[in-house]
Records
---
Amino acid sequence: MSDNEIRPFRIDVPQADLDDLRERLARTRLPGEVPGGGRNRGLPAGELRELVEYWATGYDWREHEARINAHPQYVTEIDGQDVHFLHVRSPEPDATPLVLTHGWPGSVAEFLDVIGPLTDPRAHGGDPADAFHLVVPSLPGYGFSAPLREDGWDLRRIAKAWAALMARLGYDRYGAQGGDWGSGVSRELAKVDPAHLIGVHVNYLLTFPSGQEGELDGLTGADRERLAGLERFQGELGGYMAIQGTRPQTLAYGLADSPAGQLAWIAEKFAEWTEDGVDRDALLTNVTLYWLTNTAASSAQLYYEFAHAGWSMPEPSTVPTGVAVFPYDIALPVRALAERDEKIVHWTEFEHGGHFAALERPDLLAGDVRAFFRGLRQAR
């Protein structure tokens, strides 16, 4: 096998693994609850019980496995790590190459509803000039880009791997899009591969004050509410991040041994970070990918790398950047602070949707991605 070999890949989970999952779910033991504790203490047991029951008796992994397998998939080794990715070329020959990056607790399955509209807008009521060739990788340590072969896979290293992947696929000029960790990877691409990256579109952006005197003087009341939301995220809502950023291995013993535990750990985030939740099959497909690939520990390592890298103000970007703001996201960005760090040329505030925009509002996300890159193409 050559270092640059791209190997076809197809998901084919052994039936024994699915049988084992159902047997474990049937033996689920749930803890008691403090009366009246509510959601502030964690995911309610009643909600989890219903999800466990459906996962064990109603959810059909094979249906969703086939849906992912309907798209061409590959594995290639980059920087010593196997990287799994979907590569869906548009029927439009002049389509713009675009790398889509998920985050935690997402997966490549997160993007299934936007693949068609982005690769073949003609078939979805759009302009064929807005078409994309899509590359959708699994982050190192996530899904079928596992196991991790070494530590050190931080956002910049992942961005360098994505740049190498796009070059290996023959794409000299391309765009990047992402939410959650995918936003960070996409923005790092602007730092490591600006000569080839035409633009970055994100649907998640945290804007931290630098502490410089007078920086916040011109902010509106709405801006200050967003900063208060960021503080709440760093405190009350960020407990998962503190655990995964400090002791990911210890946490993973429970998640890797109990599917109900893995489900609760992820389902809580889909409940808290969305407007109305997501379709439960979509939720369970994401959770099942984490379970079947046994990636509770390896997926959390990115938090550890991030937490131990040391924080500093980001380098200003020179690559055109577009931001889609969905109001039910974890925390919302302040444009004045975003413009300090990014070359903002496109900013959209939506009335609906949350953190998992590709699942919640695929039409809005796909439309905004089209609009952003359309502006870049027209500017050339």
---
Amino acid sequence: MSMFLDTAKIQVKAGNGGDGMVAFRREKYVPNGGPWGGDGGRGGNVVFVVDEGLRTLMDFRYNHHFKAQSGEKGMTKGMHGRGAEDLIVRVPQGTTVRDAETGKVLTDLVENGQEFIVARGGRGGRGNIRFATPKNPAPEISENGEPGQERELLLELKVLADVGLVGFPSVGKSTLLSVITAAKPKIGAYHFTTIVPNLGMVRTQSGESFAVADLPGLIEGASQGVGLGTQFLRHIERTRVILHVIDMSASEGRDPYEDYLAINKELESYNLRLMERPQIIVANKMDMPDSAENLKVFKEKLAANYDEFAELPQIFPISSLTKQGLATLLDATADLLDKTPEFLLYDESEMEEEAYYGFDEEAPAFEISRDDDATWVLSGDKLEKLFNMTNFDRDEAVMKFARQLRGMGVDEALRARGAKDGDLVRIGKFEFEFVD
């Protein structure tokens, strides 16, 4: 079984804030001590950190749930609870993080040590020392901690490489990678020897260096899932130059030019923007008997079917086996890389807007619906947050919550919808009677 994993779906849950405390100061010689309950601590965030030592998402194969610690509860003497430490989750370079519900890209993590908070911990609830007023100098009110953010994420690894090798199976991509870099990919005389992307560093004779990725071979129909499909083509999206390797000996009975067209069609079907990347055609296996004649025919077909105003891609005849033409190919690749800018991986429509962790002033504070059992159901981010942070063990807190609902206009809205005394109203799993 391959130990390479480049996609994962996980659940993350930030820590809840600690509950505030209700306490009173009772000391000798201190009359009317008053409230003394402290605030709860902040819940821990879930933070992704890039670790250049990781190469796959294998760590997420069996571990799908990541939960940060909650903050400590407030304490007496007005002391705050301890804030929880952030949960650090290490990911490899090139990891894209998406929200599973919206499909939007949250972040693209490419730099070693780069950090991103994927779920924010809740703030601590206030203790009763915060609610003291001249009218109510000894309140028995405290808040529960704010719930931590919870979300489902899709992780996608796209290896960091400057150059990508594409082509049919057994055209010599792995052999080429093995002779131009120190990488040791598996090489065999059968299709799909390469079943995971391989990465290697190239250093040219002039001293320039760049990273090359060898991708599993494509076949016609890959974009419809034939063969290995396009499951590994995501790794070419970060590359700036494509080396299109073609078996010019036609040793398997295929036409080299038809191979060229078929692979480009699969690249285009996967992502049209891949065709923006400049290509160099690598005519491999030139040490074979029919290769020179096939290359001549290939060039004629390419010129005949190309737009007369378009610049023909460069063609470099090589032999990975005899190392013929490799130096020229690598120098040309380095020159093309120098002239080719980075390609935008995601446009603005794919990126999630910068998160705002307050309330949306334009969003309704609450919504009212009716369940099949005739119960009125209240929902909405602001209302549910107030509910979760209310300590229902304290009568004063319950009365405060009732006043907040009234201030938000919930009573009037229910009455306008036809609610009557004795009707059941539900918030989450909590039910109470409506009293006009």
---
Amino acid sequence: MSKTNESLMQRRNAAVPRGVGQIHPIFADKAENATVTDVEGREFIDFAGGIAVLNTGHLHPKIIAAVQAQLGKLTHTCFQVLAYEPYVELAEKVAARVPGDFAKKTLLVTTGSEAVENAVKIARAATGRAGVIAFTGGYHGRTMMTLSLTGKVVPYSAGMGLMPGGVYRAQYPCELHGVSVDDSIASIERVFKNDAEPRDIAAIIIEPVQGEGGFYVAPKEFMQRLRALCDQHGILLIADEVQTGAGRTGTFFAMEQMGVAADLTTFAKSIAGGFPVAGVCGKAEYMDAIAPGGLGGTYAGSPIACAAALAVMEVFEEEKLLDRCKAVGERLVTGLKAIQAKHKSIGDVRALGAMIAVELFENGDLHKPNAALTGQIVAKAREKGLILLSCGTYGNVLRILVPLTAPDAQLDQGLAIIAECFDEMA
């Protein structure tokens, strides 16, 4: 009996806890570049990229070749027991790309949440302080500490009780929703006045472009003022570049466009083209604050994932993917703005590089987020063969994270499907 999406969904529901969500009731069988084929043989254009993991596309030949070569050497020793060169080489190459004119060191781990957890550990050890300031709408992971930092309770921490303390929430600047740079800075000052002295704050953590929160771009002026505030009070600035990193925004790290450097930078997702590696890169003096044994993990910096990540960096150079990122972003934004001109429900189209969002409202009223229409567009697009994602505090944002290697014809096909969906829902 041939497998179907429906039969596999039944098995999934019986075997996997319901807390593991699934956006699309589809089981993928194989994929190549920006095309995914399900178990029933149907092809889909992938505008999700495994949630920003596949900037270099599915099964990029160079990355697969690097992984296959590494498989013939060794797959695991635990770096803390027996080291291997790919870890060191990747640490060097990441440090060379992370913004900041200072000596850097790089810790490799396995997931984005783990990277953020370790960034907080490092900040606490380096400063001798415990508090952290995070932002409304921020997403930093699903582990206990990262859930404290994440600015959205449902669904991430609903029903789990209070998360670890010592985290304070400031407002993320967002002109569209009436939060100015001044407002955001004032909200940090309120934390200092009402909740915790600056000398008790180890770090301020921020996404240069919010991911799950809705793809809002932090204004350059805000990042510069935030950097100055951190310097004034001896607070470390952590840039969470898990979703923005590895070329998604048109520079390898989004902070390159912000005019300032963070003290610590977290990265994961697209850094290894689908293989699990993540990390923290920062000022050497801060990274060295924790004694031997305080950092690491059994699978941290897997040699296979390191080999993949080194290949990703070569692909970016050889295929000029940062230039391609800008071209992809411009092509999609132009097409989406043409759709916006016909539909009042689209209140905003925004992007940094190829990190693109379309925010939907009822009749264009910015006070009425339209989550229902967003969900309907995602479902209708799937019926037409396009995989989309939604995000945002109110679930009213369509986000596009298509592989940068997708050909123009496929980008145009995806745009045509999105246009059809809006026309049919109008």
---
Amino acid sequence: MSFVEYNDSIRDGDVAIIYQSHDNMMSVKVQQGAQTQTRYGVIRHSSDLIGRPYGSKVTCSKGGWVYVLHPTPELWTVTLPHRTQILYTTDIATITMMLELKPGSVVCESGTGSGSLSHAILRTIAPTGHLYTVEFHQQRAEKVAEEFKEHHVDHLVTVKNQDVCKDGFGVAGVADAVFLDIPSPWEAVGHAKTALKKQGGRVCSFSPCIEQVQRTCEALAEQGFQEIDTLEVLLRVHDVRTVSLPMPDFGTETPAKILADNPQEAPQNNSAAVTLKTTTVPRELPGHTGYLTFATKPRT
């Protein structure tokens, strides 16, 4: 099992995703003799998981059933153990596109946090790219390094436990892109410029507050970055409903003639109706996660 390659069957030691419903999933480490409790009963790893194909429908001890899915960065994002606030797929997709990541890209990231974005980056830059990720907190750095090894992507990533604002990324002139998710990204802009290749590259900073964005943009401009843009990704969900509308029975005469002659006596027989689909949007949009600031290092 690897987050960047697909295996057909579940093996001892794999990380699998237990799908109970769209809003109820969890990740489990498959182990001989282990059990996992779900809302539908117990899953026994030895008999119910190991050796079965990914995507299998597994019956639990209470008679209910779940699906066992192969892990992906998107599924890991919604099931990972939170050690910090994380980035979700909407922002991750924008970051991956705007940083122009592709197989073979070299990326520097800080901070690593719970590794949500890291897994998406690794899937994008595999099989020949590399991620240098920096985490200030020692325990978080050790834990995410352990997860990378369990997910069989550790050959694509180097984890460093240091302060990026003081010590940088530990590399120079190698990165195609740099991502910053730290409280004071403006203090790391100079180190980001150092890490980027001489022929240019892209940088992205994620900040929840506009005051952070302002200081970061000033630092980017002072360091000679160009094409500085800030955007906010908002998700608006449309609720699709089936609606039945009554149609008046106007008899043999046309509706226009009836209403023209006797508008106050138009028949109101609701025996006929037309069915159609419509959409509604929420009145409130609580979707702010943060601001994404992008910039380009000019070629030198």
